[in-house]
Design goal:
Number of helices: 6
Shape: globular
Strand content: 25-35%
Distance between the termini: 29 Å
Largest sheet: 8 strands, mixed
Low-confidence stretches: none
Length: 180
């Protein structure tokens, strides 16, 4: 997958060289558990996450243009709720240091543009937990429509099941948002 660029960010495919910077934010207990994954315990664990999760789905590392530092991840992966549709599911994480600065919305809008305009997707889905209010804010700013909450559907790292709020954005809705 190609690199993408926004005003403040460069999105590049993850490599194993990104493991230390991924670990530096993914070890924070305020980051992963909101998305259902446990804080990373070592650089080696971050390396394994890159190998097993990020490289296979071609996830992007979110780099600040100002210093090149990796501050988050974002990707389009298999849409588990729409297996027969021309759809991908958006997922992301961001270092707590950069919350509430519009960075994830900026990155997500570029990945959404890429999905519709370059991959030719018909829709993009996204899911989040009911307690993840920050992610819900990004989702709404990007124009996604709420479809409903599926109860006890998402098994998180500690084995408990969480409710999952499901949203989607259709290509024609994206096109209408572009015109505004």
């Amino acid at each position: 997958m190609k690199s993408l660029e926004t005003e403040r960010l460069t999105l590049k495919m993850f490599t194993l060289e990104d493991a230390a910077e991924l670990y530096s934010y993914a070890r924070n207990p305020n980051v992963g558990p909101h998305a259902g994954w446990s804080p990373h315990k070592s650089v080696e664990e971050s390396e394994e996450i890159i190998k097993q999760l990020f490289i296979p789905v071609e996830a992007w590392a979110i780099h600040l243009k100002s210093d090149g530092k990796v501050i988050g991840s974002i990707g389009l992966e298999h849409d588990k709720y729409r297996p027969d549709a021309n759809s991908k599911e958006l997922g992301y994480s961001l270092s707590e240091e950069f919350w509430r600065q519009g960075i994830m919305t900026e990155a997500a809008k570029e990945v959404i543009r890429f999905g519709f305009e370059e991959l030719g997707l018909d829709q993009i889905g996204i899911c989040t937990g009911t307690a993840n209010v920050r992610s819900q804010g990004v989702i709404k700013k990007c124009g996604f429509k709420y479809e409903g909450t599926i109860r006890r559907t998402y098994k998180i790292y500690d084995g408990t099941l969480r409710d999952s709020m499901v949203y989607s954005l259709l290509k024609e809705e994206y096109e209408a948002l572009k015109e505004k």
